[in-house]
Amino acid sequence: MELIAALLLLLFLSVGFAGAALADGMLPALISGQARPSWRRPIAEAARLLQTQPIRTEAPDALLWFLAPALYLALAIIGLAVIPFGPGLVTIPSEVGIVVWGSCEALTIVAVFMFGWSANAPLPLIGAYRYVAIALPAMLISMFVLIGAALPAESLGFTEIVEAQRTVWNVVRQPAGLILFLMLGLAISLRGPFDYADPADLAGGTTADVSGPALLAWKIARLAMLVSVSAVTATAFLGGYLGPILPGFVWFLLKTALVLVVLVAAGNLFARVPPARMMGVIWTMLLPLSFLMLLAVGLELLLWG
Amino acid sequence: MGLTDLLFFALSAVAIVSGWRVFATDSMVRASFLLLLSFVAVGLIIVMLAAPYIGVATIFMMTVEMMVMALFMVMFMMNPAGLNPMMMVHQHRFSIVAGVLAFAGLTVAILFTSFPGIPVDPAAPVVHDLGIELLGPSMLIFETAGVTLLATMIGSVILSSRSGRFGLADQGSRPPGLEPDGEPAGRQPEQGGGGHHHHHH
């Protein structure tokens, strides 16, 4: 069963990655009213990056710089590995799935920091530091809403969390939790309003001094993490593989695709606020909101569970 | 020697070598990440010991902790981003003696302890049992330790951040003058603005 799940993971990641690349390339054009944007753009961009000359900065930490994209991609795959694709279809069955996913979130922050820090150049470094400052509290929030998703299941495993949603999906229990988790999704896939690592205001930030195949590897890892976080959102809040008529894997794929499109659209529709303001919003509004959601779920289960 | 043994020895080697490199590297950030690697290897060994929650939680907590540590070290030590080479060890003679004593003590403890050899039943609900223990009989201990640690962290930040880069932190930030003891550079904040108390002249 685990072997089938591992093969499905490869299939899911490939399909999801292709979909993410298409959505990322085409949605901005669709949103701006272009009727038929070209689906070839991501492929052309990848081909261009493969041919671009790689550059070096002065005295970088070459090893960490080289390893950071690989770590980022590996974390996306590990995150997918603890998620059930269907009843009993999970690559690494873990009874502490959300803690494994939490570690992937935390290590993603380390990977992004490593990538910016090891370039030994100003803009990547600024991107790396301010990303850590924003992403660490965003990760805290996501863990609180995930605990809210684990409470009804009385388990930290994703399979149990999905099974506990047979009666009611977690998005109904904590609607704000879903939105908070989507924000984390934007943060760890370095996207739109939560992209403090490599946005345009820092001339590329952590990627400012990266070019060629290394930049392509980083972009691939980002899209893989987007697929991974979409899958986790679909599992923890939208009932994962649960659904009528169609097989579980298809439902899981559809829900993941929906979340992915929402994330890409949100990344294009919402603007990034200055980091200091975002920091205030996260610590004084969003974090208390996640506490409230957790309290609400706890009270609901205590009174009516 | 089975696959489990090989994995155990490999992880132990990673933990020991990266732990040693923490003290051999010349950068605070690299030292933090090497320590993190060491902890990840130890966490995976704990997972192998049939304690999945403790193992994975070790990896999770240590990742966050090392990241925060790297951030704070650079903030307080004013070493531009931790990229400047610096000596990572100090008080050599004292640390050598302490290290030898700790090694001897731990070795003696390991050699003279009879470790239990009871394999954990794979069906045992270890995570559930741990949760009952943590939030049941041991709750007071863990909560006390948690609140104490939090108070220590806040206290140490307050104590160490009073003498800021541009003067005392509780007197508002004051950029350096354009000439020695001269007017501070940049735009002067309005009286009472920004929540600071300015006593400039």
From TrEMBL, chain A:
UniProt subcellular location: Cell membrane; Membrane
Keyword DNA repair listed: no
Family annotation (InterPro entries): NADH_UbQ_OxRdtase_su1/FPO (IPR001694)
GO process terms (BP): aerobic respiration
Major location (coarse): membrane
Any Gene Ontology CC annotation: plasma membrane
Keywords assigned by UniProt, alphabetized: Membrane, NAD, Transmembrane, Transmembrane helix
Lineage: Bacteria, Pseudomonadati, Pseudomonadota, Alphaproteobacteria, Hyphomicrobiales
Molecular function terms, GO-annotated: NADH dehydrogenase activity
Topology within the bilayer: Multi-pass membrane protein
Pfam families tied to this protein: NADHdh
Entry coiled-coil feature ranges: none
Official protein name in the record: NADH dehydrogenase subunit H
Keyword Transmembrane helix: yes
TM helices/strands, residue ranges: 62-86, 98-119, 131-151, 171-190, 220-242, 249-270, 282-304
Organism from which the protein derives: Fulvimarina manganoxydans
Family named by the database record: Belongs to the complex I subunit 1 family.
From TrEMBL, chain B:
Reactions mediated catalytically: a quinone + NADH + 5 H(+)(in) = a quinol + NAD(+) + 4 H(+)(out)
Entry keyword ATP-binding: no
Classification via InterPro entries: NADH_UbQ/plastoQ_OxRdtase_su6, Nuo/plastoQ_OxRdtase_6_NuoJ
Gene3D superfamilies: NADH-ubiquinone/plastoquinone oxidoreductase chain 6, subunit NuoJ
Segments passing through the bilayer: 6-24, 31-51, 57-76, 96-118, 138-159
Molecular-function GO terms, alphabetical: NADH dehydrogenase (ubiquinone) activity; quinone binding
UniProt keyword terms in alphabetical order: Cell membrane, Membrane, NAD, Quinone, Transmembrane, Transmembrane helix
Top-level taxon of the source organism: Bacteria
EC number: 7.1.1.-
GO CC terms of this entry: plasma membrane
Region annotation Disordered: where it falls in the sequence: 168-201
Subcellular location: Cell membrane
Keyword field contains Manganese: no
Class in the EC hierarchy, top level: translocase
Membrane topology value: Multi-pass membrane protein
Protein task: NDH-1 shuttles electrons from NADH, via FMN and iron-sulfur (Fe-S) centers, to quinones in the respiratory chain. Couples the redox reaction to proton translocation (for every two electrons transferred, four hydrogen ions are translocated across the cytoplasmic membrane), and thus conserves the redox energy in a proton gradient.
Family: Belongs to the complex I subunit 6 family.
Protein name in the entry: NADH-quinone oxidoreductase subunit J
